Automatic annotation (TrEMBL):
The keyword Transmembrane applies. The keyword Cytoplasm does not apply. Pfam families: LysM1_NFP_LYK, LysM2_CERK1_LYK3_4_5, LysM3_LYK4_5, Pkinase. It comes from Parasponia andersonii (Sponia andersonii). This is LysM receptor kinase. Residues 1-33 form the signal peptide.
Length: 678
C-alpha cells in the first residue's frame, strides 16, 4: 500500500515535469516575431486558440494588398475565373499574377497566387471576406475550411463569424468566409505578406528557397523557431519584398514523380534530421506522458469508462497531438522547390481560346450599354472591330457557363467568343444572332411568322436536335441543358438555330445504385427552376434531372413550330397583350393539347386545326403528322416512353430530307383536289 502511494507520487511528479516541459516549449515559441502559426490547432474545431481566429491586427496599415495561394483543384476551382469567385478576388489580377489567361485551365495542384485586399475593418484580426454557398449536405465547417478553402480559413473562424450551428448547415446556405491574411508590422521591412499553404514534403528551407526569402525571416514571420514542425494544410506567412509574380516565374520540369508516402524514409541531410529529431522528441514526450497518465489511472483503478467524445459529427475531433503524429511533414526528398509553370502554355493552346476583354472595350462596343443597344433584359448588341456581338451582363458566378461553352464547338450552339470580368459583373460576349429568338419570331409579331415557312421550321427543329444530341452524347463531359425553351433558341441571318443560355446546364453522370449523398445531389435538385410549359413532370414533382428533361422540352419546341403557339397559356397571354385581336385563349399546356389532337377520331382534321394558320396549306401534311407524332412521344409523361434524343434526331433527319424533296405546289394541288372533292 505504501508502495502504491509512492508510485502515485512519482507519477504525479512525472506528469508535472512533462507539463512544465511543454509549457516551456510553447513559451519559447511565443516570444519572438510577428504572427503565430496555427500549429495544427485548426483541426480542433471545438476549442479556441488565439492563432486559429486569424492573424492579429498588429500591422502598420489597417488594410493592404496581400497575396493568398491556392492549389488548382479540378473540376471546380482550376481557372483564374473560378478561383476568383471562390476567394472573392479578380480573375484578371490572378491571371496577371500567374502569367496565364483568365480561362486557362490550371493543372491540378499547381500553386496559384491570388491577390486580395486584406483589412482589419474594425476587427481584431486581419481578414479578406469571401462567401460560399454550401453545395452538398455532407459539407461541414471543417470541410469548407480544410478541403474547399485548403486551409485559408479555419473551422474556428468560420464558426465565430457565422450564426448557423455546425449541425444546422444545409445546401444553399450562404457562409461568410473570413480568409486569413496579414499586413506587415513595423518590424518587418517587407512589402507584402503572402499566405502559403503548406503541403506534404514542405519544410522551412524549401519554402524559403521557393520564394527566395531568408529561412530566418520566414520563421520570424510565423513565430517559429528552426526546430519547429510545420503541418500540411496549414497557412504560413511568407514575407516578400517584391510582388510574387516576379519571383515565381522560373521554370522546372513538369511535376516530379509521385512523392513518397509520409511513412517513407526521410532524406539524409542535416536540416531534415533536425526536423525529424524534433518530431521524434515530441512523439517520445507524448508517449511518456500517455504512459505516465495511463499508469497513474491504472493505479487508481478507476472504474469509470473513459468518456466518449460528445460529438461524433463531421469535424474530426482528433487529439491534436495524435494528429500531429500522422500528419507530420517529412523533409523533402526531391529537389522540386520552385513552382513549375511552363506546362500552362500547352494547356493554353489546347483550350479553345476566348478573348479576354477589358471593361473599356466592352463599354466602347456597346456605346456604354446604351438603351438603343439593348436587345432585352441584360443583353446588349455590340461591335468589336466591326463584328457584331451580343453581350450578356451577369452577376455572380458564371464560370460554369464559361467552362461549358469554351469547350463546345458546334454550329448549332451559340459561340462564346470572349468575356470580361470586372466589378463583380461578368460580361459574356457571344456571336450575334441577327434574327433574334425563336419565341419572338413565332409569337411576338404575327407577321414575322411568314418568314418561317415549313422548310425553315423543320431545319430549326433539326438544328436543335443536333445540338442536344451533341450535348447528350458527344460532348466531353456530356451535359443536360435543363433550360431549353424557344426564347433560348436564337436564329442567325439564315434562320439556322443556335442553342443558348447554358446557365443551368449540368453534367450528366451515371447514377450508381448507392444513394450516396453527392451522387444523389447531382440528379435530384431541390431547387426546381424552369419555365412553365417546358418542364417535364418528373422534374416538377421530384426534381429528377435526366437527359429526358431536354427531350421533353424539345417536344414542346416542335409543337411550337407546328402550331405557332406558345408553350403555356400564360405565355400566350403575355404575347397577346400586345395584340388584342387574338381571342381564342387556350386552357392547356401545349404538351397536353397534342395528346387530344392525336388521340381518338378525326386525327387528321384535328391536326390541321392545330397547325399554325400562318403556314396556310404550304406544308406536307404527312410530314407534319410524323413530326407531331414525334413531339407527342417526346412529351410523354413517363420519361421511359420518351425517345432518346438520338432517335428524335434521326427521325427529324428523315423528315428534313423528305421536306427538301417536297415541292410546295404538290401539296397545294393535293389540298385543292381534296377540297374540291368535298
Ligand atoms: C490569447 O489572447 C488572450 C486575450 O486576447 C490573451 O490574454 C493571451 O495572452 C493570448 N495568448 C497568447 C498565447 O497569445
Ligand atoms: C509570361 O509568359 C509568356 C509566354 O506566354 C512569356 O513570354 C513571358 O516572358 C512570361 N512573363 C514573365 C514575366 O515571365
Ligand atoms: C483592392 O481595392 C482597391 C480599391 O478598393 C481595388 O482597386 C483593387 O482592385 C482591389 N484589389 C484586389 C486584389 O481586389
Ligand atoms: C468582413 O466581414 C466582417 C464580418 O462580417 C466585417 O466586420 C468586415 O467589415 C468585413 N470586411 C470588409 C473589408 O468588408
Ligand atoms: C484536409 O484537406 C486535404 C485536401 O486538401 C485532405 O487531403 C486532408 O485529408 C484533409 N484533412 C482532414 C483532417 O480531413
Ligand atoms: C439549429 O436548428 C434548430 C432547429 O431548427 C434550432 O432550434 C437551433 O436553434 C439551431 N441552432 C443554431 C445554432 O442555429
Ligand atoms: C523586431 O525584430 C527584432 C529582431 O528582428 C526582435 O528582436 C524584436 O523583438 C522585434 N520587435 C517586435 C516588436 O516584434
Ligand atoms: C545517411 O547518412 C549517413 C551518414 O551521414 C549514411 O551512413 C547513410 O548511408 C545515409 N543514408 C542515406 C539513405 O543516404
Amino acid at each position: 500500500m505504501r508502495d502504491g502511494m509512492k508510485m502515485k507520487m512519482k507519477m504525479k511528479m512525472m506528469v508535472m515535469v512533462m507539463a512544465m516541459a511543454m509549457v516551456i516549449v510553447i513559451q519559447m515559441k511565443a516570444t519572438s516575431g510577428q504572427q503565430s502559426y496555427v500549429n495544427n490547432h485548426q483541426l480542433d474545431c471545438y476549442n479556441h486558440f488565439n492563432s486559429t481566429d486569424g492573424y492579429v491586427c498588429n500591422g502598420v496599415a489597417s488594410s493592404c494588398l496581400s497575396y493568398l495561394t491556392f492549389r488548382s483543384s479540378p473540376p471546380n476551382y482550376n481557372s483564374p475565373v473560378s478561383i476568383a469567385y471562390l476567394l472573392d478576388s479578380d480573375a484578371t489580377l490572378i491571371a496577371k499574377a500567374n502569367n496565364i489567361s483568365d480561362v486557362d485551365t490550371i493543372p491540378t495542384d499547381r500553386l496559384v497566387i491570388v491577390p486580395v485586399n486584406c483589412s482589419c475593418a474594425g476587427r481584431s484580426y486581419y481578414q479578406h471576406n469571401a462567401s460560399y454557398l454550401l453545395k452538398r449536405r455532407s459539407e461541414t465547417y471543417f470541410s469548407v475550411a480544410n478541403n474547399t478553402y485548403q486551409g485559408l480559413t479555419t473551422c474556428q473562424a468560420l464558426m465565430s463569424q457565422n450564426s448557423y450551428g455546425d449541425r444546422n448547415l444545409s445546401v444553399n446556405l450562404d457562409l461568410h468566409i473570413p480568409l486569413r491574411c496579414a499586413c506587415p508590422t513595423a518590424n518587418q521591412t517587407v512589402k507584402y505578406l503572402l499566405v502559403y499553404l503548406v503541403t506534404w514534403h514542405d519544410d522551412i528551407p524549401s519554402i524559403a528557397a521557393r520564394f527566395r526569402v531568408q529561412p530566418q525571416s520566414l520563421l520570424d514571420a510565423n513565430r517559429l523557431s528552426s526546430g519547429d514542425i510545420i503541418y500540411p494544410f496549414t497557412p504560413l506567412l511568407v514575407p516578400l519584398t517584391t510582388d510574387p509574380s516576379q519571383i515565381l516565374q522560373p521554370e522546372e520540369p513538369p511535376s516530379p514523380p509521385p512523392p513518397p508516402t509520409p511513412q517513407s524514409i526521410p532524406a539524409n541531410n542535416s536540416k531534415s534530421s533536425s526536423n525529424k529529431w524534433v518530431l521524434v522528441g515530441a512523439a517520445a514526450l507524448l508517449v511518456l506522458l500517455l504512459l505516465a497518465l495511463s499508469a497513474f489511472l491504472l493505479r487508481r483503478r478507476c472504474r469509470k469508462p473513459k468518456p466518449q467524445p460528445l460529438s461524433t459529427s463531421s469535424p474530426p475531433e482528433k487529439n491534436n497531438n495524435i494528429v500531429s503524429n500522422d500528419h507530420s511533414p517529412l523533409p523533402e526528398t526531391t529537389k522540386s522547390s520552385s513552382i513549375s509553370w511552363s506546362s500552362s502554355l500547352g494547356v493554353r493552346s489546347a483550350v479553345e481560346s476566348l478573348t479576354l476583354y477589358k471593361l473599356e472595350e466592352v463599354q466602347r462596343a456597346t456605346d456604354s450599354f446604351s438603351e438603343t443597344n439593348k436587345i432585352r433584359g441584360s443583353v446588349y448588341r455590340g461591335r468589336f472591330k466591326g463584328d457584331e456581338a451580343a453581350i450578356k451582363v451577369m452577376k455572380g458566378d458564371v464560370s460554369d457557363e464559361i467552362n461549358i461553352l469554351k469547350r463546345i464547338n458546334h454550329s448549332s450552339i451559340i459561340r462564346l467568343s470572349g468575356f470580361c470580368v470586372s466589378g463583380g459583373n461578368t460580361y459574356l460576349v457571344y456571336e450575334y444572332a441577327e434574327s433574334g429568338s425563336l419565341s419572338d419570331l413565332l409569337h411576338l409579331h404575327p407577321p414575322t411568322k411568314l418568314k418561317l415557312p415549313w422548310k425553315q421550321r423543320v431545319e430549326i427543329a433539326h438544328d436543335v436536335a443536333d445540338a442536344l444530341n451533341y450535348l447528350h452524347n458527344f460532348a466531353h463531359p456530356p451535359y443536360i441543358h435543363k433550360n431549353l425553351k424557344s426564347s433560348n433558341i436564337l436564329l442567325d441571318a439564315n434562320l439556322r438555330a443556335k442553342l443558348s443560355n447554358f446557365g443551368l446546364a449540368t453534367q450528366t453522370r451515371v447514377v450508381t445504385g448507392h444513394d450516396d449523398d453527392d451522387q444523389a445531389q447531382l440528379h435530384l435538385t431541390r431547387h426546381v427552376v424552369g419555365t412553365q410549359g417546358y418542364m417535364a413532370p418528373e422534374y416538377i414533382e421530384s426534381g429528377l434531372v435526366t437527359p429526358k428533361l431536354d427531350v421533353f422540352a424539345f417536344g414542346v419546341i416542335i409543337l411550337e413550330l407546328l402550331s405557332g403557339k406558345p408553350a403555356s397559356p400564360e405565355q400566350e397571354a403575355n404575347y397577346n397583350n400586345k395584340d388584342d385581336n387574338n381571342n381564342n385563349q387556350r386552357e392547356e399546356l401545349l404538351s397536353e393539347s397534342i395528346r387530344n389532337v392525336l388521340e381518338g377520331d378525326n386525327v387528321r382534321d384535328k391536326l390541321r386545326d392545330f397547325m399554325d394558320p400562318a403556314l396556310r396549306l404550304d406544308y406536307p401534311f404527312d410530314l407534319a403528322f410524323s413530326m407531331a407524332q414525334l413531339a407527342k412521344r417526346c412529351v410523354a409523361r413517363d420519361l421511359n416512353s420518351r425517345p432518346e434524343i438520338t432517335e428524335a434526331f434521326m427521325t427529324l433527319s428523315k423528315i428534313l430530307s423528305s421536306t427538301r424533296d417536297w415541292d410546295p405546289s404538290d401539296e397545294l394541288q393535293h389540298s385543292r383536289s381534296m377540297s374540291n372533292g368535298r
